[in-house]
Specification:
This protein is an all-alpha fold. It is built from twelve helices and no strands.
Amino acid sequence: MRRFTGLWRHPDFMRLWAGQTVSVFGSLTTRVALPFTAIIYLDARPYQVALLTSADVTAGICVGLFAGVWVDRLRRRPIMIIADIGRALIIGSIPLTAWFGELTVWQLYAVAFSAGILTMFFDVAYQSYLPTLVETDDLIEGNSKLAASSSVAEFGAFSAGGWLVQLVTGPGAMLVDALSFVFSAASLLSIRRPEPPPPPVAERESTRVEIVDGLRAIAHDPVLRTIAISWIALAAASGVIGSVILLFVTRDLGLSPGVQGVIYGVGGVSSLFGALLAERARRRFGAGGAMAGGLFLGGAGALLIAGAPGVIAIAVPLLVAQQLISDPGWTVYEINQVSLRQAVAPPRLLGRVNAGVRFAGLIAMLAGSIFAALMVGPLGARIVLVIGASVPIAGSAFVFLSPLRTLHPPDAADADEIVVAR
């Protein structure tokens, strides 16, 4: 009897998995440390924090569709390695500059923007590379394992990130992220399986034509179109909530960075359960049903944040409950939607489909961030949070009423049935 089965016996996937687990830990540490650096270290104003959280989103929008074209034109693994090395250098500039007492909010903007460009290339290449590394019927297992390890990393990063900010300041905490990208690049370099060659240069169309081909594939396919719309709903909510949550919890509820880090870390544990349940949810409710349920739980849980009063004894349990409800829901949604997208999109267009979906999501996220920045003054952070939490609930209803509700991919056999059904 074999001790390990499935992707546990796939050494190249295990290398990818190890590198991404460490990288996610570092990135989530920066997600905590970067805004706290602006809020505490530089005493940033609310609009400056909102601009900072939207800088990487703006960068992704600027290069998103072009990233999809080049990911389909070139081998994906070298793109990921270059992006990792670049992000290590860029993020590493923050603790270096802070050491000399020269750090400014403008540098934070520049770092967030530059890293956002590289992250867009990495993420599009990564989602397009996985189907070339594992078989189609292993996609949901691969995405579930990656999500599970990301959940563990989230627990560690958010639990440690807040305390790291207090102990070594925000810039010092971001050194962890820079080192994690170095490890990720090394893990990618160690993968031995050769990547399929890219299309010949002679087969390339103009950049504009190739971008249009990718967008057309999304618009004309009912499955990909529904995935894109649901992702837009989640991204818009993320932009709204992400722009105000730290300000609301820090200034309105009065919770310290360390306490917040522990609370947010609970979401890592609950996300792990979401990753473990993602395939079971797909088999029980179908990919569309799992996606709809995940979005609903995510939005419903987020409403608890807005309902938290200024009494710490009540606010903390509500914030913990949100982590227990929202995070597993969003994890189930994300695993199922990305696995479905990888199984359904034509391989030659996969980079552009991934980029198009991500591009649309980033526009929605930016719009949500701008909305939050403009409305947090007149409406207050609490009302803005209610609005943000309502968006994925609406997205859940849209998915439930769409053709996705009856689909049960992404097994290889099921993928063929999807093509026939359309």
